[in-house]
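ugh ok fine here u go
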Amino acid sequence: MAQAVEEWYQQMPLITRSYLTAAVATTLGCSIEILSPYSLYLNPKLVLQQYEIWRLVTNFLYFGKMDFDFLFHMFFLARYCKLLEDNSFRGRTADFFFMLLFGATVLTGIVFIGGMIPYVSETFAKFFFLSNSLTFMMVYVWSKHNPFIPMSFLGLFTFTAAYLPWVLLGFSVLVGSNAWVDLLGMIAGHTYYFLEDVYPQMTGRRLLKTPWFIKALFADDNVVLAADARFAPPAQNLHQD
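structure:
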């Protein structure tokens, strides 16, 4: 059993393995009180006035108490982060990292700007951690790249992957979770999808380009793909019963 888990972990691509490790380590550290969530949460005033810049990163690493909800989000993080990195971004580790960085920037910007708008500032002030929203962004982007994959929700009904974000959003509403967490992820995901996939097809121009210094951080595989993986027929292991 231990060997199987180790093999599963080692087979994860770089970004997925790194993010999952950091998330589990951070959440576990808070659970055993080595770390404090109060030193990790996103606070615009502390970031801008006290220069506690680390909060821009650490708020994406803490997923709350280590309970069933934590395991649920770790499953989604491991699954959809891996699917994106192994398929749509195969051989483009730097581009995948840039996608996550872009999503994190959009989410942070929404919270910062929303916190300055009257009548809604109190709502955005409650977003202390954006980790779940970033995970939902990955689910959204994956669903856009693989819209026709058949899926099932708890064995109750079937649908195609294009509707996965909406199914999960509806489930969040039914169980009383904060729907804004999912909505923010959808906004960030759609912003990236539009700028990366839709806008270039409409205009022939690309607004999103991975900076050279990010590309320099990763040694991407020098593989010439016959076609972009996002337009290739879905691999068998993408199907979810």
